[in-house]
Design brief:
This protein is mainly alpha-helical and 78 residues long. Helices cover 76% and strands 0% of the residues.
Length: 78
């Protein structure tokens, strides 16, 4: 009878346990699949795509100029 009084608390406690466990299980499955696929590609001798990004670094003046421009643009959208 006491459980019926506190059913809302029991439901919230069950949800607080079930949601993260379900998320972690899904994430670990995705990581396992990605690891298996990349391992299979390497084991078969296939070339793995590599991306190299080259760009010049912004100076502090350029960074502040871009930040000011972004602030003005964001203010105009309001």
């Amino acid at each position: 009878m006491n459980v019926l009084k506190h059913m809302e608390a029991v439901f919230i406690a069950a949800a607080l346990i079930a949601v993260p466990v379900g998320y972690l299980a899904k994430v670990s499955d995705a990581n396992a699949n990605a690891f298996t696929a990349s391992s299979a590609a390497i084991a078969s001798g296939a070339k793995v795509a590599t991306v190299t990004v080259t760009a010049k670094r912004l100076s502090n003046a350029e960074k502040s100029q871009l930040l000011a421009l972004d602030t003005v643009t964001a203010a105009s959208r309001l």
